[in-house]
Amino acid sequence: MKKLAIFDLDGTLLNTIEDLGRAVNHALAAKGLPIHNMASYPYLVGNGVRNLLLRAVPDEMRTDSAIDDILKIFKEYYNEHNCDYTTPYDGITELLSELTKTGVKVAVASNKYQQATEKIVRHFFPDIDFVTINGQQEGFPVKPDPSIVFDILSKAQATKDETVFIGDSGVDMETARRACIDSIGVTWGFRTEKELTDHFADKIVHKPSEILNIVKNYSSKVI
To answer: Is the peptide bond before 146 cis (omega within 30 degrees of 0)?
Structure first.
């Protein structure tokens, strides 16, 4: 059995895409820039808010000063509206509860900035005892750099062999690979199953209830 399950946030625990898209569109509109259809946002997210904005703005706006201005507007809006449309995926709350009852530690590793990550997780999962909730912080590069994973391992006092990383994107699978820990790719999030297999997910699941059985009976056999 694994002793620590590290979860990505956006697209894995929570469907956050509507609130993220609305916040980006608000910031773009405030600067007189074209906005995006909501259907495009699942393919823009995944490497932190700054990179999301870099992908969302026209080429001529991709300067540090321009992104700083847009990021400020984004955060002001998102900090107030990050729970408007966001919801946990079906079965996630029950999964987290069962994992902790079984004795498995749970943690969050997100590229969303720390203030929003902690607020959203505490809001939607107030009864879950996370060993740590790690968003993007000063001094830590974003995933797929594995630094965030190593910090969680230290806080949880867990080894790599005892740990599994669970996420919905190639970024998450690459993070696990670079950290030398096992990975589970989930298909209900923002990216495709093909992206997960292309980035060498060790296992792939289609509903949260499958994760509990895998974590309790983990083997290295790919399924």
So the answer is: no
